[in-house]
Structure to design on (295 residues):
């Protein structure tokens, strides 16, 4: 079971990074900045990957 | 039947990485308890995997709208892809040791020396099940527009056949496959799909500046951006 959860979610830092990405998407779309989201989200995702890589 | 290469290739390469890992574990177990028992454990894991996939496929088909499925699978892909991309960046930058199948093989052998026959069987079973589960996630996620997932499952099975054939021919861990480069590419593609689908599920089809072409742009951005950052900003200075 532990292996299954680890396979699906990874560690808590990974889960935190993904929840931040989805939250950013929700905020940008809900505030009418959908066009900006197409550019801002990938940059944020890249930053999250680098943050995880440094851990 | 026409093969959709946009679906086939990413799944094939991702599945290949996972099957190589599973094969390495089974190989190490086979040396300890024999091919018959290790093969039996692998077949049992594939049977469990088949039951799981049929159950989960039915669940996804039952009343789930495409937007919800896209959103859910997008999140799963992000969870999966971001990990791969981060690890590939860390390895490229020298922050983490390159994943070595030989090392994994040796570690599994060391574990086996401490374990009994039953535990060895379980190691092979769990290894194939967990790696197979990752393959299934990719099949479902990347094969969402593939009716019946025929191309997607075909890609995963082709990768399995190639790995087993290579393994049978080489009789050694498949460390000659440049795993980190494959993981960099696959991690970038999976993260791109995850980003694309989560934002599409939230904001609608027209949210991406270049429509479906944005997927290719995202993949390139993560791959080239990750390589650049790994080789410059994150690069650990080499000791003299």
């Amino acid at each position: 079971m532990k292996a299954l959860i680890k396979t699906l979610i990874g560690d808590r830092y990974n889960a935190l990074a993904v929840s931040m990405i989805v939250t950013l998407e929700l905020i940008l779309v809900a505030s009418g900045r959908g066009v900006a989201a197409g550019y801002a989200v990938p940059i944020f995702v890249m930053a999250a990957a680098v943050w995880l890589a440094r851990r | 039947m026409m093969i959709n290469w946009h679906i086939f290739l990413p799944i094939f390469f991702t599945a290949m990485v996972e099957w190589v890992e599973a094969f390495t574990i089974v190989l190490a177990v086979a040396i300890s308890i024999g091919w018959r028992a290790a093969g039996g454990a692998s077949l049992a894991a594939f049977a469990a995997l088949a039951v799981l996939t049929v159950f989960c496929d039915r669940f996804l088909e039952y009343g789930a709208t495409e937007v919800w499925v896209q959103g859910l699978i997008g999140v799963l892909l992000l969870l999966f892809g971001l990990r791969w991309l981060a690890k590939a960046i860390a390895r490229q930058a020298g922050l983490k040791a390159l994943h070595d199948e030989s090392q994994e093989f040796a570690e599994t052998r060391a574990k086996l020396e401490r374990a009994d026959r039953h535990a060895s069987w379980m190691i092979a079973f769990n290894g194939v099940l967990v790696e197979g589960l990752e393959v299934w996630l990719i099949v479902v996620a990347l094969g969402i527009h593939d009716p019946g997932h025929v191309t997607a499952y075909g890609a995963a099975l082709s990768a399995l056949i190639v790995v087993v054939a290579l393994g049978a021919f080489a009789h050694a861990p498949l460390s000659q496959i440049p795993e980190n480069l494959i993981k960099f590419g696959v991690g970038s593609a999976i993260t791109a799909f995850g980003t694309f689908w989560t934002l599409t599920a939230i904001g609608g089809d027209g949210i991406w500046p270049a429509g479906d072409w944005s997927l290719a742009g995202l993949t390139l951005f993560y791959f080239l951006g990750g390589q650049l950052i790994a080789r410059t900003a994150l690069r650990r200075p080499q000791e003299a």
In short: Helices of chain A lie at 2-9, 12-30, 34-54.
